[in-house]
Amino acid sequence: MKSGPSWFNVTSLVLGFSFLYLPILLLVVFSFNESRLVTVWGGFSTKWYVELMKNQQLIDAAIITLKVAFLSASIATILGTMAALVLVRSGRFIGRSLFSGMIFAPLVMPEVILGLSLLLLFVAMDQARGFWTIILAHTTFTMCYVAVVVQSRLVGFDKSIEEAAEDLGCPPVRTFFLITLPIILPGVIAGWMLAFTLSLDDLVIASFTTGPGATTLPMKIYSQVRLGVTPEINAVCTILVALVTMGVIAASIATKRQQVQRERDERAAFGAAG
Amino acid sequence: MAKKPIGPVRRAFSPWDDPAAKPFIEFRNVTKRFGDFTAVDNLSLKIYEREFFALLGGSGCGKTTMMRMLAGFETPTEGQILLDGQDLAGVPPYKRPTNMMFQSYALFPHMNVEANIAFGLKQDGMPKAQIAERVAEMLRLTKLVPFAKRKPHQLSGGQRQRVALARSLAKRPKVLLLDEPLGALDRKLREETQFELMTLQEELKMTFLIVTHDQEEAMTVADRIAVMDAGKIIQMAPPAEIYETPNSKFVADFIGDVNLIEAKVAEKSPQGTILQAASGEFCIDTIQETPAAVGDTVWYAMRPEKIRIAHGDTPEANAVNKVGAEVWDIAYLGDISIFHSRVGEKETLRATVANITRLVERPIAWDDKVVLSWERDAGVILTA
């Protein structure tokens, strides 16, 4: 039997990866284009990155986006963790299945509908739209993702660990902060990062719920692209791609390392016990 | 390691026979229902100070629920639980003077061994120096000194078990609750730990309550055993009493190995009872009196080691109770051999014989015609 990859496998791999990454690769390549014309190669240059640093509008939009993402991810993490705790821990209560179904609805709900309903709510409340309404909207739609991630971490959690803490004289609230939270922390952080990323690149919901003076980066990019794609936009996007890639790689390296260390420790322990 | 003196001989200890003794833990008509399921059924129980008490039973018999009610993780549906005279109703787990060793050990995975042991002491606001002292003492007591800085996942099963024990003992609770504490250990380690537990209990002068499904474990460690089934205590007595005078077929069968012989009461007299085996093959002359009437069906429970097995020409052939049999199967376990002998067509009796010689060739072999004999006080008559 042949041990190497078959033609079919190689073709599938190449097709799959080109489908996923060719557009991004093009974007990265053209961000280093000398020419102002986006689709014509005019030689290597980093001038669009320099240009970018001078574009105050884009920088302002980026700062707003980061602020929104940070705040909404933090609120969503608190609310989502609480929701996950209730869903996993409280056993059966009236309306539990309704509640668990409803918390995950935003996962499948079309963003347009979510954005529109939030807009209607803010209008009905006579709420001036802007920075804070985007944060509220992003909290709403990222919370369910946090709940899903934290819930998966909680399902494998041995409840008797909390009981042990209480048995040793630790009241429930302190038990949560001393025992439960440190153990589920990886899940909570993963949930926060997911919420942060989702908020960072959301265009639809932000457009519905924004107001004057609160333009996020995706909105800015979108509006500029309608006037024509500039190499400057390519540069912004390349930076975003680089940031996200580094984040993903760092997270997976950390996870892998932790796992290897743990396996080594366990082997050492059982070897010593013999 | 230097051997330390093993201390004074364990003295007879039986406060439960003293009507004036004050119970330390008392369950008063406690019932616990989960929906339609009754886990504990109107159960009353008294446990005395410094007693090592075992709740023994199969899964779902309510033994763990009893322990969790005492620890405060479950609330009784009806009835009262008293500890040292104080009603525990409404007292949350973190305010009860009991500590529990969990079946899963429930160690805090993000803390090292020291921090695990110190956790309960910190909750009490004990001064730092005193905590360090107590932790060091517990580490020594459980032989964990070299592992003080390790995290739970860096320990073997036996070491984790000892951390769990040290953590639950650190606060010197009035009562230590042990929930199937040795279930995950292999046989050798389990036996060792059982003796360590007994020694610890003697040294620390605490009351221990153990929940287990392992009858050998309960027999080894406990002063008294309560055998539970379906939320009720079937029999409560010291291990020897439970073994030698079970009060029902359930207990006789649950604890150890037993021959349960169905029989009819043939004759009653002040000197005892004579039974006729239902198989019709033999009579049993006993010293025991029974409430059953002549002609009633009863059960005679006899432990296999109480039956002698010999060839027909030996003096045992003249015993009061004897029956001819044929060796059907022999199980050689090293220390003992179990002989399954057929009596007539329907009955099989088990007899165990200690292998006191090193002979590989046994004097009794398969298909041998033998005589089984036993004393008049070898077994007990059971009516339920």
Automatic annotation (TrEMBL), chain A:
Cell compartments where the protein resides: Cell membrane
Q: Does the keyword Ribonucleoprotein apply?
A: no
Where, by residue number, does the polypeptide cross the bilayer? 7-32, 61-87, 99-125, 131-155, 176-198, 233-254
In terms of domain of life, where is this protein from?
Bacteria
InterPro entries recorded for this chain? Bact_Polyamine_Transport, MetI-like, MetI-like_sf
A GO cellular component annotation here is: plasma membrane
Q: Name one GO biological process term.
A: transmembrane transport
The principal localisation class reads: membrane
UniProt entry keywords in alphabetical sequence: Cell membrane, Membrane, Transmembrane, Transmembrane helix, Transport
Every copy of the ABC transmembrane type-1 domain together lies at: 62-254
Q: How does it sit in the membrane?
A: Multi-pass membrane protein
Gene3D superfamilies attached here? MetI-like
Record keywords: Nucleus included? no
| Family listed | Belongs to the binding-protein-dependent transport system permease family. CysTW subfamily.
Can you name this protein?
Answer: Putrescine transport system permease protein
| Species name | Roseibium suaedae
Organism lineage: Bacteria, Pseudomonadati, Pseudomonadota, Alphaproteobacteria, Hyphomicrobiales
TrEMBL record, chain B:
This entry's Gene Ontology molecular function terms read: ABC-type polyamine transporter activity; ATP binding; ATP hydrolysis activity
Biological processes per GO annotation: putrescine transport
Record keywords: ATP-binding, Cell inner membrane, Cell membrane, Membrane, Nucleotide-binding, Translocase, Transport
Q: Which domain of life is it from?
A: Bacteria
- Would I find Transport among this entry's keywords? yes
Residues crossing the lipid bilayer are none
The cross-references to SMART domains, in alphabetical order and at most eight, read: AAA
- UniProt keyword tRNA-binding, yes or no: no
Under catalytic activity, the entry for this protein gives:
ATP + H2O + polyamine-[polyamine-binding protein]Side 1 = ADP + phosphate + polyamineSide 2 + [polyamine-binding protein]Side 1
Domain ABC transporter: where? 25-255
Q: What is its EC number?
A: 7.6.2.11
Per its UniProt entry, what is the enzyme's top EC class, as one word?
translocase
Q: Which InterPro entries match?
A: AAA+_ATPase (IPR003593), ABC_SmlMolc_Importer (IPR050093), ABC_transporter-like_ATP-bd (IPR003439), ABC_transporter-like_CS (IPR017871), Mo/tungstate-bd_C_term_dom (IPR008995), P-loop_NTPase (IPR027417), PotA-like (IPR005893), Transp-assoc_OB_typ2 (IPR013611)
Q: Which GO terms describe its cellular component?
A: ATP-binding cassette (ABC) transporter complex
Function statement: Part of the ABC transporter complex PotABCD involved in spermidine/putrescine import. Responsible for energy coupling to the transport system.
- Subunit and partners: The complex is composed of two ATP-binding proteins (PotA), two transmembrane proteins (PotB and PotC) and a solute-binding protein (PotD).
Q: Which family does it belong to?
A: Belongs to the ABC transporter superfamily. Spermidine/putrescine importer (TC 3.A.1.11.1) family.
Please identify the protein, giving its name as recorded: Spermidine/putrescine import ATP-binding protein PotA
Organism of provenance: Roseibium suaedae
Lineage of source species: Bacteria, Pseudomonadati, Pseudomonadota, Alphaproteobacteria, Hyphomicrobiales
